[in-house]
């Protein structure tokens, strides 16, 4: 493990352009549950029933009550952890350019990263299904479900439901970043949801080194990733940063 921390510190220090791809595991230490695995949201709910656009269109009250309302309570409390802070510090050191995140919690921006691609959109705002007006989630009146826009239309999170397209700009920029980087950190993602999971493959095919940080191995491990640092993202990022600061 210590050897891999040193290796990662060296790889990050020597790289010209570093990108990170993060998933739910990056925010677990902030108290946000993941989707898959033990304690994951999809253990409690069938994603096709609560997180598919067709389910939302069919029964928005059900999806708001089962999924979205609870999500708001959790995200309202969440603060960046050592993983987010480590990635912000990497940017400050000039060692990280872009974070591509599948998370909708806004914690990378809160920690200080300035170029964050929100691959699955964001929970910070809602939009009206009728007039497309946007509203900050914290200003939305949730005393009645589903919450409504001034025009009477139903509000929905500005996040991607299953069955929807990835925002075009996010997809286009992510592919570009994956093609251009020479090191990609892949942190806390099971890498089973496409097309996000393709980004490390694009990076690898373009010659980048792929460093995974995850307590478990994933579909990428041993094939796409060059090495896996097994452990919680916050702890590992802290160790890598400490090692890098020694090398400065
Ligand atoms: P998952 O819930 O599928 O995977 C979470 C990953 O985090 C797993 O690989 C865990 O092993 C790992 N993990 C657990 N604890 C960790 C820790 N402390 N530090 C680092 N890693 C840890 O989450 P995602 O891969 O992000 O999409 O899921 C991808 C997409 O599936 C989500 O964006 C969401 C979901 O359905 C949509 O809602 C469209």
Count of strand segments: 9
Please identify the oligomeric state: single chain
What is the strand arrangement across the widest sheet?
3-2-1-7-8-9
Approximate shape: elongated
- Looking at CATH, the homologous superfamily of the domain at 1-30 and 80-120 and 163-248 is TPP-binding domain
Main beta sheet: 6 strands, parallel
What does this 3D model show about the protein?
- The protein has 248 residues and is an alpha/beta fold.
- It has a domain at 1-30 and 80-120 and 163-248: TPP-binding domain (Rossmann fold).
- It contains 10 helices and 9 strands.
- Helix 9 links the parallel strand 7 and strand 8.
- The protein is elongated, with a radius of gyration of 18 Å.
- Bound molecules: 2'-O-acetyl adenosine-5-diphosphoribose (OAD).
- 2'-O-acetyl adenosine-5-diphosphoribose binds next to loops.
């Amino acid at each position: 493990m210590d050897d891999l921390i040193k290796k990662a510190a060296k790889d990050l220090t020597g790289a010209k352009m570093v990108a990170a791809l993060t998933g739910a595991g990056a925010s677990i230490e902030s108290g946000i549950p993941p989707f898959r695995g033990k304690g994951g949201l999809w253990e409690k709910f069938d994603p096709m029933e609560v997180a598919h656009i067709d389910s939302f269109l069919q029964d928005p009250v059900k999806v708001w009550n089962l999924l979205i309302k609870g999500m708001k309570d959790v995200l309202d409390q969440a603060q960046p952890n050592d993983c987010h802070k480590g990635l912000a510090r990497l940017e400050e050191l000039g060692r990280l350019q872009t974070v591509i995140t599948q998370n909708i919690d806004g914690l990378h921006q809160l920690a200080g990263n300035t170029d964050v691609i929100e691959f699955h959109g964001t929970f910070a705002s809602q939009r009206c299904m009728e007039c497309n007006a946007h509203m900050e989630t914290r200003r939305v009146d949730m005393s009645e479900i589903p919450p409504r826009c001034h025009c009477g239309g139903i509000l929905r999170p500005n996040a991607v439901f299953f069955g929807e397209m990835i925002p075009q700009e996010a997809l286009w920029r992510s592919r570009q970043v994956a093609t251009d980087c020479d090191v990609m950190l892949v942190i806390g993602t099971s890498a089973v949801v496409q097309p996000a999971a393709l980004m490390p493959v694009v990076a690898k095919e373009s010659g980048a080194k792929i460093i995974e940080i995850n307590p478990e191995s994933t579909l990428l491990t041993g094939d796409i990733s060059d090495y896996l640092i097994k452990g919680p993202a916050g702890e590992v990022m802290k160790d890598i940063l400490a090692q890098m600061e020694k090398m400065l």
